[in-house]
Structure formats: C-alpha cells, structure tokens
Design goal:
eight-stranded mixed beta sheet, alpha/beta, 12 helices, about 30% strand, globular, about 575 residues
Length: about 575
C-alpha cells in the first residue's frame, strides 16, 4: 500500500526513518514557536532533534498572538489543527470619546477577506504564545521528544563535518557534537552573535509600549470588543479580552509619551493606576499575570546561515509589532528551512540546497520590515493603525518567484524584473514560487470506496506532491513514469482528472492518488483547462516549486532538488 493512500487530516503516517534518538543530528537552540516548528517539521521528516531552552520554565504571556491565514495553512500542513480550532477571531475594535464610555466607533482591525475555495483559512485567529507553545510541545511529545529546559548554549565551533556546542545545565558543562544547529534563541541570543552575522537597523526612541496580561473587571467593559482609549500619537490603552488568561483576563497595551514607561513597567501598582486613568469606570483589579516593556527595534541579518548553523525568527529579524507579522514570519522561516535540511541530512539533496533558505527568506523579511515600519510610522503620526487596509498582511501573497530552485515554463522571463516577495494574493494569476491554492470536494477514486478530499489534505512537510492535471490517466502515465526513479518516501504522485472523467474506480500502477475534480475547483484554482495537460510540483512547504508542460520539466525541476535525477 502506498504511504499516501490513506492520507487524511486527522491521522498521518509519518516516515520515522533513520531516527537516531541517542545522538540527534540537529541541535535547536530556543523553544519558542520558531524553534518548536523547526523541531516538529524535522521530526515529521524522520530527522531526530535535540531542542534546548535556557529558561527553566516555559514562557508565559500572550505576547504576539495574531496568526494570519498563511500561517494557519502552515499549521494545517503540520497537522496541528488546534491553532485554528482554539484560536479566536479578532474582535471588533471599539474606541471611545475622550474621558467617557460613550462609543466613538466600532471598526474591524484587519481587512476582512471573503471566503473562497482556494483559501480555507481566511479568518485570522488570536492564540497566545503561551498556549501555542503548549500545543506545539504536545505534538513533539508524540515523537517521544521534549524540550530540555534550563539548558543554555554557552559557545560553539563548527568544522567541515559538524558543530561542537558547549551547553550548561545546573552549573554543569556538556560538550555536544552535532551535524547542524538552528538558532531560534531570539534577538539577544548567542547563535547569531557568535556566528558573526550583522544585525543592522535602528532602535526607535519614539515608540515604546508596555504590554502584558491582566485580570480585571470594569463596569461597562464588555468581553466582545477590543477596547481602545486615547490615541497612539500621545497616550493610549487597548484591552483585548482573552479567556486564556482567565474569565476576567485581558491582554493590554499602554503607550504614553508624557511619562517614563520604564518606571511604570516595574510597578504593579503604577500599571493598575495607569490603566485606571484611561478607563472612566469602576475597575476591580485581580492580578497582573505578566508584563514587559517593548521598544521598536527594526533589524535583520545579512544572511540566515553560515556553514552548518542557521538562524530563524527573532534571532534573524526584529521589527515593530504593528501588523502582527513577527511570530508568523518566524514560523515560516522554520518551515522553509526544515524540509530542505531534512533532504540534505537524508543524503537525498546536496548541501547547496540549504543556501536557498537564506536567498528565499531575505527578500521576504526585508519587505516585511518595510511594511511593518510604515504601519508604525502611520500610528505615530496619525494615531491610527492602518493594518485593516493592507491585504499583504494575510501573507497569502508572499512568494519566492525569484528563487533559483523554482521552475516555470509558462511564465515569461522579464529582464531586471523587481522582486515583489510580499505580494497581494491574486487568484487569477499563478506562478512557480507562489503559495499553492487549495481546492475542496475533489474525489479520490481507484479504491474500494471513493473519498472526498481537499488538495491541502495531500500536502505534507516530508514530501513533494506532483499534481498532474490531465484529461485522462493515459495522458498522465508518461509523466508519472519519469518519477519512478525518485525516492517514493519524498515524492507523492497525484493525477487530477477533470469533472467529465468517470468516478468509477480507476486503477493506476504509476499514481499514488487519482482524483476527479467533480466540481471544478482544482482546475479553476490552478488555472487549467479541462482538455489541458499541465504539471504542478508542490514543495513540502506548500509552495509551487514548478509549473511545467510534462516529463522533461518535472525532471529539470527535481534535478535542482535531488542528487540522483
């Protein structure tokens, strides 16, 4: 039976091959969302990891809580449905007339997307990092892996064949030899600094906020809206209700240009007094669960790796929280790196594939810094947040069309074409390097019982999916035949037949999956005519690696990825 035959969204056959639990080949430093996603991606690829964190206990706090549609897709591919299921939609923002609880206006914080068949997760969700970390750690535990807390990276050195790290736990030093290391240890972490990567940018003195989690009850404050008092130009407070903190829990943000914020953040009493000064109603404070001061640092590395060591997330880039792109960008870093590192570690791809991690992520992060800084500047100058007007923030238009490992035989090359890595989703245009769209209600045939699927249910982080759109199986067979030489554990072969094809069982010795697009969603999403043969190769990270005419194009694409093609 094929590995892919029984794929569904709840139970997945993970290829746990080469699992050397005693001496894992990858050390991950830092167990925030980026580190956890890197670990989970590698484990699902059959690559064991060791993941450490210097803090003795898991971090608390909501922190960056917004999860945008593209990241919801990422968690779907990782089979972590809890992020979408437990996350809450962003509530309407309610602002008030100064000094009163009289409503000034209610408005959406973000641009509302219309649901379409190609975008199954069109609603951004809010889930605190504390809960997100718990969810991801539970998924690691399914592989009998856990985070080693209270374990700190002191130093490391790398040679041609590996990395030697010096770790410290409870005052005891340990020398650990590994083949690869991923630094997910944040902006102040050891990995980037010792790797010697630059971290150029600016620290903004004109924007400082205090954020935290608090339990309070206020007369007239409902738990339906995201309440805002004041303006971000001068002084402001926002209160977002979240049951993750408690039945009377809130995430708060405070900014005030007239006071010393560092002094306020150090005093629970001053925080209570400051919040009370904004809200003209009776407030009962219960407890302050977590608090932190944040200044806008806008910086990024010059490259995302050096030799056998990589950086992801805040270790590679920091920016304004406006736009809510930080956590999302971090987990997308890890997802881009994970499948590539797995193929190299398995000996299926050359080390040069790892260079594309940096070359694909640098333009994306550079544009992200520009976007979030622009939103910050507007907040400071006008007092308003422009996030709700920017469709790029969904991250569905992020692409790597410029990458040297994508192949598009249908796109017209344009000399000197500017890179637009942070684009806007355009369902009427599709190129290699774009996010692969979804399509619902495709019927899997060729088995005893037909099964309705989505295309997203096929895409997983440990293999490429080759989608052959063809009028019949006969038309698809020559293309599928060229894939016989590929390692079947890392390539899934799927044929997508038009709605006119019979839904009776169709046997195929070449295809892992045969689908009939009975309602036309797949052909529409991928812009294919019913009588046309067209091949899409979907990378393990849900990006279109290739759009080609046939067998030769498929071979050409895979020659960029695998060693023996």
């Amino acid at each position: 039976m094929s590995l892919y035959t029984d794929l569904n969204t709840s139970e997945l056959v993970i290829p746990l091959v080469h699992m050397n639990y005693t001496h894992p080949p990858v050390l991950i430093v830092g167990a925030g969302p980026a580190g956890l996603v890197a670990a989970l991606t590698l484990l699902q690829n059959g690559i064991p990891v060791r993941i450490i964190d210097k803090d003795p206990n898991p971090r608390i706090g909501q922190r960056g809580s917004g999860i945008w549609p593209r990241s919801l897709e990422l968690f779907n591919f990782l089979n972590v449905p809890e992020v979408n299921n437990l996350g809450k939609p962003i509530p309407l923002n309610r602002s008030y007339k100064p000094g009163t609880l009289e409503v000034l206006k209610d408005f959406a914080m973000v641009l509302e997307m219309e649901p379409t068949p190609t975008v199954p997760f069109h609603i951004p969700k809010l889930i605190g990092q504390q809960l997100l970390d718990v969810v991801l750690r539970r998924h690691l535990e399914k592989f009998s892996f856990s985070v080693e807390m209270g374990t700190e990276l002191r130093s490391f050195k790398q040679e041609e064949e590996g990395v030697t790290a010096v770790l410290a736990k409870n005052g005891v030093l340990e020398t650990f030899d590994t083949k690869w290391m991923i630094g997910a240890d944040g902006a102040k972490g050891v990995v980037r600094k010792q790797l010697g990567l630059t971290f150029l940018g600016e620290t903004r003195d004109d924007f400082c906020i205090i954020t935290g989690d608090i339990c309070l009850k206020g007369v007239g404050l409902d738990r339906v809206h995201w309440h805002q008092f004041g303006t971000w130009q001068e002084r402001a407070l926002s209160l977002r209700p979240t049951d993750e903190v408690g039945e009377d829990g809130w995430q708060f943000f405070i900014t005030d240009r007239e006071v010393e914020m560092t002094k306020i953040v150090q005093s629970e009493e001053l925080i209570f007094e400051t919040i009370a000064s904004f809200v003209p109603t009776e407030i009962t404070f219960n407890k302050l669960a977590w608090v932190s001061e944040f200044r806008a640092n806008i910086r990024m590395v010059n490259k995302f790796s050096e030799g056998r060591v990589f950086v992801v997330g805040d270790a590679a880039h920091v920016h304004s929280p406006t736009g809510g792109q930080g956590l999302n960008s971090s987990v997308q870093d890890a997802f881009n790196l994970g499948w590539k590192l797995a193929l190299v570690e398995k000996g299926l791809a050359d080390k040069s594939l790892l260079e594309t991690y940096s070359s694909e992520r640098l333009p994306v992060i550079s544009e992200m810094l520009e976007i979030t800084t622009s939103i910050l500047n507007q907040a400071i100058t006008t007092g308003g947040i422009a996030a709700r007007h920017n469709p790029k923030l969904s991250m569905l238009g992020i692409n790597c069309r410029f990458s040297n490992i994508v192949l598009d035989e249908f796109a017209t090359p344009v000399e000197g074409k500017p890179i637009n890595a942070y684009g806007v989703l355009d369902e009427g245009h599709l190129e290699a390097g774009d996010r692969a769209p979804d399509a619902p209600n495709v019927l899997q045939v060729g088995r005893r019982e037909s099964d309705v699927k989505t295309l997203f249910s096929l895409y997983r982080p440990w293999y490429h999916t080759v989608l052959v759109f063809a009028p019949s199986l006969v038309d698809a067979t020559p293309i599928l035949g060229t894939l016989e030489a590929c390692d079947h554990s890392v390539v899934c072969k799927a044929v997508v037949l038009p709605s006119s094809a019979p839904v009776t069982p169709i046997a195929s010795s070449c295809a892992d999956i045969v689908l009939v697009d009975r309602e036309g969603y797949a052909y529409s999403a991928y812009l294919v005519e019913a009588n046309e043969t067209k091949v899409f190769v979907i990378r393990p990270d849900g990006v279109i690696g290739a759009i080609v005419h046939g067998a030769e194009g498929v071979k050409k694409y895979f020659s960029k990825i695998f060693l023996d093609v």
